[in-house]
Amino acid sequence: MSRIIARAAIRGAHGYVERAERELREAIEAHGPGKAIGFPNTAYYLPLILALTGIEVKTLADAERALGIARDLLPPVPEDRLWLPYLGPALDAGIATLIAQEIIEALKYLRGEEPEGIWLGFTDDATLRLQGIKLVDGRMPGFAACVGAMPSVEEAVELARALQERNILVFMASNTRGISMAEQLAEAGIEMSWDTFLVPYGKDTSAAVYALNFAARAAMTFGGIKPGDLEAARKILLYNKERVHAFVLALGADYGPEEHDGQLLTDEKYATAAGAINFGFPVIADVPIPQILPRGICTYEHVVSGVPHDKLVPKAIEVRGLKIKVSEIPIPVPYGAGFEGERVRKEQMHVQFGGKYSDAFELLVGRDMSEVEDGRVTVIGPDIDQVEEGGAMPLGVIVEVAGRRFKEDFEPVLERRIHEYVSWANGVFHMGQRTTPWIRISKDAFKKGFRLKHYGEILVHKFKEDFGGIVDKVQVTIITDPEKIAGPMEEAKEIYRKRDERIAGLTDEDVDTFYSCVLCQSYAPNHVCVVTPERLGLCGAYTWLDCAASHEMDPHGPNQPIKKGETIDPVLGQWRGVNEYVKRASNGNLERVNMYSILQDPQTSCGCFECIVAVLPEVNGVMIVNREYLGDTPVGMPFSTMAGQIGGGVQTPGFLGIGKLYITSAKFISAEGGIRRVVWMPRELKEEIRPRLERRLSEIGEPDLIDKIATEDDAVTVEELAAYLEKVKHPVLAMEPLI
Ligand code: SF4
Ligand code: ZN
């Protein structure tokens, strides 16, 4: 490491540790050492400190202990003449910096000075898990921590778009001479949120620590690494190097070439960079700071500098070795997963379809090879240049596919992807499916030349790109003529009805093969989802049909058929074939799994479950809590705390991570009495699944049970819940004891 960087980094680390010590002392004087400190909605305390030192910082006194470690790590600031041949001291300084920065940021929360306005501050556990699954399934190849600002607003927008188009998550922190990239994007009116992959953490350089404590939690959450000692810390850093493909973009110079002894960036930035290098995250800079090229801790170079602005993203991808698939779709707007969550507001809208404004439907059907002309897009009716700005048009979208290996069963699997494909276009908003889609196209996209033909092109290209194994030809017909949409829409409804009947009837007993999903093993190496017709994957994204289709398309992929084999216990849902598979796929960690039980050898959880089911022994029932619900629950913990305890691929009897659809399955914890055991769930979840829940409860002859299931409006503590269940005479009171 060049002398100048090492000196600056070590000096910066001293600065941070001293500042943290000072602010901590002030806080202790004001509140006493027992005062609680922490970030909102996390089970990981101060996550980076937990990961690096094993200390659970709950109070100011704990923070003091952690800071003591940082102080001990600090190397002396080298003399000018001293040659530092190794990275070692600067890397230690980097770790000390991160510990100090995390305390500095946490103290802001204590003082009520946390990042606000455009700044999002700390990422809570729920968001971490939600975004984590995108890393797991490859929607996100990695993240970029952008530190500083671009020379102009336009260039900042270009950089953001270039990263979004490659589905790279963008974290923003710090500033260059008082300006930050996030402020530049805000000035350009760019929507910044987790949904658009643009996450502004905070304007101080210390806010960069949020990106690293996100990365550290990814290792603990998805990698199942238990923090505690040096060995664990080493594993967490290694995990990040190997699995969390991140890099730092250092943007802009803080000093002129003559100003500060030739040093172009602040000591704080060098110290933070040294911290990031410990994670194996290389630093790519636009200004000519000294490079650190030999390979060591990072997969490739540590610091690459003087990169021209238009080469920043390709260079980072090359240095970090990211595997990026960019869709080359001939449309006039940027395209990528980063645009999926983007909304088009009424004032920004050129035209809309569906919703409550017009008829709309989306259908995907398989056809004979001779019936499909590959790549053809037909528009029947006026295009969007013939509508009055802000108006509505009807929209029928029929995607016809053909392939020698295509099966009718794959139709709904592919059809569900229409949402994602369409909404990845910048300036196109999409919601819903079948006969309930709601689509908006922005004025901006229209001005760039986006037309319905492009809508069709997107679908043709994406289906062939992602499903090339089963789809040889794709053609798309788009109907906007109000006279011509009714007939096809009726036909589509008939197809949906038949499909639902076929799928709804399928039970675990009807098939001799289940499917595995090991997608999450890239994060939770011992986790296996066994997916059956009546129990989908716990992330909610993979049904039995999805897995069957995915296996067909990619026979060596993450979804493998599991022959059930001999039935060991039909009530618990245990089969010899499943046990054998799970033992192998969990690297010998699991002997057996029961598909229908929460108490005996239940399925493991990786981390991306939609809901958690938890046993409440006091009331002889179970509660269900969904990820979106942030409040307290009768088990005495919010979702995030519980999630932290059950993830990582281990069996935790009494707790189960599940997909929402499983709640209304006939096999929902059927070994313990099924849906009758449910005594509590958040109101929002109940409303979301109400139609299915009503149907299921009628099936078992208990239509009144729906009102006996408490929500947070009826009870939050287990005592309140017991009283409520007594009052409504919930059937669990008469059921045999759970435990
Ligand atoms: Fe992960 Fe299971 Fe979902 Fe597969 S089905 S992506 S293993 S949670
Ligand atoms: Zn998962």
Would you give an account of this structure?
The chain is globular and about 80 Å long. It is α/β, with parallel strands linked by helices. It has 22 helices and 23 strands. 36% of the residues lie in helices and 14% in strands. Bound molecules: iron/sulfur cluster (SF4) and zinc ion (ZN).
What would CATH call the architecture of the largest domain? 3-Layer(aba) Sandwich
Number of DSSP helices?
Answer: 22
Mean pLDDT: 91
The biggest beta sheet reads:
6 strands, parallel
Distance between the termini: 61 Å
- How many separate domains? 3
Write the CATH fold name of the largest domain.
Rossmann fold
Share of β-strand residues:
5-15%
Shape: globular
Present as ligands are: iron/sulfur cluster, zinc ion
**Helical proportion?**
25-40%
Low-confidence stretches: none
Rg, alpha carbons: 27 Å
